[in-house]
Design a protein that fits this description.
The complex is a heterodimer. By secondary structure, chain A is α+β, with helices and mostly antiparallel strands. Chain A contains four helices and five strands; from the N terminus they run βααββααββ. The longest helix of chain A has 22 residues. The radius of gyration of chain A is 15 Å and the shape is globular. The interface between A and B is medium-sized, with 31 and 29 residues.
């Protein structure tokens, strides 16, 4: 299985991304809690990309693919023209610091790292590919 | 998309988000809480029974009020989360920072 979704960088499109992921994984018997966690992680990755790399420009498109690899891990790829921010290089702030500073941001990357097993960045055909993998339970 | 209702019961402001709170709609949750604070409510319940999804943008809204609520002696209790929403709070360890009840009756006891 490999499904692809091309989407403009408007945060209004996040709902469509979530539906795309749910609809792609449900028929393969991936557990509901696993799906909801991955939806959350990919919502964070895509909203970060839309907001920080593309300033929410709806005319900028990127590609999201979801597939199952040979070992039945779920693999997501975000393919974009712009360089994608490397979350592995980001030290997420302490929760108490976020509370103290009354910050609204800073939780998303923590969620992605907690949910996904690996996040890698590769270059392919002049584009940046962010690949996220998770081992899941099947029902 | 989220629709947010407010109901006042016995001096408690009950905020009811219906639908999905994400980066595009978290501002609405923020505005409703700010309005409740502005109107002087010191007891706030967040009825999550119709909340289908919340991303970190929505969680961040709740987090951003923790200090202000402490300063102003405002108490807030969230209740009625479905398993997926509750799991999101749990992954981030927010159950330690926010008061979360299973249902309205328990929430009312906690806020009394």
């Amino acid at each position: 299985m490999k499904n692809t979704y091309r989407v403009g960088c408007s945060i209004e499109n996040l709902r469509g991304i979530r539906d795309f992921i749910r609809n792609s994984l449900k028929p393969y018997g991936v557990g509901e809690l696993d799906i909801s966690e991955m939806v959350l992680a990919m919502d964070e990755m895509c909203s970060n990309l839309m907001i920080h790399a593309h300033q929410c420009n709806p005319d900028d498109l990127f590609e999201l693919t979801v597939s199952l690899d040979r070992d039945k891990n779920v693999v997501f790829e975000i393919v974009d023209d712009k360089s994608v921010f490397d979350i592995n290089a980001f030290q997420e702030p302490d929760l108490n610091y976020i509370v103290h500073e009354k910050r609204k941001g800073g939780l998303g990357i923590r969620l992605v790292k907690a949910i996904m097993d690996s996040v890698e960045y590769i270059q392919r055909n002049g584009k940046t590919v962010c690949r996220l993998t998770k081992k899941v339970q099947f029902v | 998309m989220v629709q947010i209702k407010r109901i006042q019961e016995d001096g408690v402001d009950i905020i009811v988000p219906i639908g999905e709170v994400d980066a595009s709609s978290s501002i609405e949750l923020d505005l409703v809480i700010a309005k409740s604070v502005g109107e002087g409510y010191t007891k706030m319940l967040v009825d999550c029974t119709a909340l289908e999804y919340i991303s970190s943008a929505g969680l961040g809204v709740f987090m951003s009020y923790i200090e202000e609520f402490k300063d102003k002696h405002i108490s807030m209790v969230l209740f009625g989360m479905n398993q997926r929403v509750a799991n999101t709070f749990e992954i981030l360890g927010l159950k330690e920072l926010l008061t979360i009840a299973s249902d309205k009756a328990q929430a009312k006891q906690l806020i009394a």
